[in-house]
From TrEMBL:
Assembly, per entry: The basal body constitutes a major portion of the flagellar organelle and consists of a number of rings mounted on a central rod.
GO cellular component, one term: bacterial-type flagellum basal body, rod
Highest rank taxon of the organism: Bacteria
InterPro entries assigned to the protein according to its UniProt record, in alphabetical order: Flag_bb_rod_N, FlgB
Biological function: Structural component of flagellum, the bacterial motility apparatus. Part of the rod structure of flagellar basal body.
Residues covered by the Flagellar basal body rod protein N-terminal domain: 18-37
Protein's recorded name: Flagellar basal body rod protein FlgB
Family that this chain belongs to: Belongs to the flagella basal body rod proteins family.
GO terms, biological process: bacterial-type flagellum-dependent cell motility
Alphabetic keyword roster: Bacterial flagellum, Cell projection, Cilium, Flagellum
Location of the protein in the cell: Bacterial flagellum basal body
Length: 125
């Protein structure tokens, strides 16, 4: 079993955040498109659960399933009001999601900076 490296995890999260931001921007761009249904990607935790191989130490344990790809999926129809045109994009929700992505990028960057500083301190002696 390979150890889960911090930099690899940060890279994967940044890839996921980029995909999520792309889906959010598509939703905003299609806010006035008749019949457009807002989409979102699965959570980062769910994507990681699918992509990180788990070691089965006991045959009675559950085994992971899925191919580990992140797919865009339709939003819950109860989250946004569906307009007469059939469009269910809520700009407020999309901007909140975008803010969440920005906050996650910032947190990820701060963790990596702190870890890099710790490594520099250790290696300097």
């Amino acid at each position: 079993m390979q150890p889960l490296q911090l930099f690899d995890l940060a890279f994967r999260q940044n890839e996921w955040l980029a995909q999520r931001q792309s889906v959010i921007s598509q939703n905003v761009a299609n806010a006035n498109t008749p019949g457009y249904k807002a989409k979102d990607v699965e959570s980062f935790e769910e994507a990681m659960r699918k992509s990180v191989p788990m070691a089965v130490t006991n045959p009675d344990h559950f085994s992971p399933s899925g191919d580990g790809t992140v797919q865009a999926r339709d939003n819950d129809p109860y989250q946004a009001e569906v307009l007469v045109s059939g469009n269910d994009v809520s700009l407020e929700q999309e901007f909140l999601k975008s803010n969440d992505v920005m906050r996650s990028y910032s947190t990820n960057t701060q963790i990596l900076k702190t870890f890099a500083n710790m490594l520099q301190t250790v290696t300097k002696g």
